[in-house]
């Protein structure tokens, strides 16, 4: 049985049922916003923390739908007549929200914007809004980026200046580029300047995997290869392959059966934004990287992308049924230990690690760059709702993973 290929819209639908915790959180955040709209002159900030798959985006979707419904229909509400925006700095996810807006009468496509567009448009008219909701706030720019027409120092700081209430979600493990460098400490240094509240979402909703397997993935991306838990395959199709082509064939089979199954990879293979195809080769395996997606449909929901390898830039924020993960040449296992080594000289996205004026310590820079590489692995490891298949380029790491996997099969 194939699932609906419009899965991203379904996942973020304002009609998707919430848990009691999520519903209470939506209610509390709206009360926070109402209070600060009515009784305070200074901006206020509400931050929702949570790892991948903890339901952050669906909370925001419900919240914004309720906010806009009240703003446009409920004369008794403190939100009536308010001017509000929803921002996300990820073009693929923005497509999904704009698609959702086409299905709900009180959500308009113009309500959803990229942060830079929002800032620059308001600047033209010295504008100000009431409530701003920000999904994937860990992708906000924290330095100028002239390529993207952002000329200020920090997108979140600029958004707060232009709004009365800002509501955002943040995941420290999804920080991937120096121009979007955030840590909880850097975020709190900014938000602590204003009236603020925080909330931590902890329950994992995306994957049917055990907590032990999820913890194993977290330890792996912290740089340590530990023994696979015995329940790694309980209610979850977890596999390790020593042949990338066999893994690809299995993913194609899953895609034929249930849809939304793709091969993904870390960096470390040739890749240039020149419009041409660049291939990942592993033995018999040969597939091109994902191409820039000019359509309004998310990359994973385009049928032909079964013949491409997805990157962090096309899969972040999206669910797959099954994900075949290639741990590329950028990560290897140390010769005499279970520790992982990051090879920054094999990183092919030259834009990611451009230097910042506020970072001068070489050790700190190396630590942050290594962390971002591991964050990218963490993100792609957590795409598969029903199953995750692994293949490692590094022979030592591949052998270690296969040995561990053979023990639990």
TrEMBL record:
<dbReference type="InterPro" id="IPR018647">
    <property type="entry name" value="SLFN_3-like_DNA/RNA_helicase"/>
</dbReference>
<dbReference type="InterPro" id="IPR027417">
    <property type="entry name" value="P-loop_NTPase"/>
</dbReference>
<dbReference type="Pfam" id="PF09848">
    <property type="entry name" value="SLFN-g3_helicase"/>
</dbReference>
<feature type="domain" description="Schlafen group 3-like DNA/RNA helicase">
    <location>
        <begin position="44"/>
        <end position="394"/>
    </location>
</feature>
<protein>
    <recommendedName>
        <fullName>Schlafen group 3-like DNA/RNA helicase domain-containing protein</fullName>
    </recommendedName>
</protein>
